[in-house]
Amino acid sequence: NAEYMGSNVPDCSMLAVAVRVSAETLPSPAQFEKLMGMSQIQDQQRVMKFVFYVDRVRAVLGHVLSRWVVGRLAGLSTEQVELGRTKKGRVFVKGGHANVNVSHSGDWVLCVAALGCDKLVGVDVQEQKLKKNESFEDFFDNLQYSFTATEVLSITNSSNKHTQFCRHWTCKESFSKALGMGMSLEFSSIDTRVNRSPSLFTISPHKFARECEDWSVSVIISDTQRPQPQNCGVVSLLLDDTHAVAVAVVTASSCEMDTEFAKQIDQQQQQ
User: What is the pLDDT of residues 14-51, one digit of tens each?
Assistant: First the structure.
């Protein structure tokens, strides 16, 4: 089950792909080995660190999708696309004007890539899942410190608090991943707010989405020592009843990035 979610980013070629991998749709061992053969050696080693077969499948699919999506945009074969990884785990494209990011959670693996522009992309998918006998209130109590006061009100006043939590969380995560920062960027400093105005970009309709309002989200950095993001957009949507996803697009020159990742971007732009 693959879903192509094209986007409308001005002056930029962009493609997002979502693939559903559930217990009923797992590839055979032979198909898994074929996927492993399509991934790079260093990625194969990362895949085999996972204990469970389903997690290995989602991991290797994320690696292969990253190469395939970039190749699709650039007119290259999967084998011609070479990826690198920063010390913080941020994937980058070697020797090409492209940016790619991948995420997997629960039944979904998502990949988004942009080509031929100064846009950084980030994607995050989050499954709504609690531990056995755990209430949402207990779950949220342990993570509430990661949210701003505005976001806490948005979550606690919602009729579906867990869904609202996942949407805000994926917005934060996708923005941070776009910058190559990951969890090193203090999440409580990222304030995500739903806009009523058009987004910087849109994602085309997708058959798996439920009947809900897609969010156009603005990002505000409360840390006065960091620059405010310019020309930044985040779109949040629901893939199904239990999975939220957010895609972030950030102008490379407008935000503070991970130092190692920033060097890779500079090298791309100079080529």
Answer: 888 888 888 788 889 999 999 999 999 999 999 999 99
